[in-house]
């Protein structure tokens, strides 16, 4: 799934607090705190989107699993067991 957001939206300043030791370690490695935060937010939202998708489609998963349990897979029907 591709997270959809406006990659060209204007940047906005925010006030954050974080562990000072971590900040110093990231800066020592020439890490960009803004990029790290942005990528972390993207990852968080992508994970949440996947969770929501699984919740919304759980009935379909359950139905498919029940059908497989009852009838087996197509490969079992035609003798293509690997």
Helix content: 55-70%
Count of extended strands: 0
- The percent range for strand residues is under 5%
Order of helices and strands: HHHH
Structurally, the number of domains stands at: 1
Question: How many helical elements?
Answer: 4
Spans where pLDDT lies below 50 across 5 or more residues: none
- The secondary-structure class comes to mainly alpha
Describe the structure.
The protein is mainly α. It contains 4 helices and no strands. The chain has one domain. The longest helix is centred in the middle third of the chain and has 24 residues.
Produce the secondary structure layout:
Layout: H1 20-28, H2 33-56, H3 58-71, H4 74-78
Report a brief summary of the structure.
The protein is mostly helical and 82 residues long. The chain has helices at residues 20-28, 33-56, 58-71, 74-78. The longest helix has 24 residues, at 33-56.
Question: Characteristics of this structure?
Answer:
mainly alpha, about 80 residues
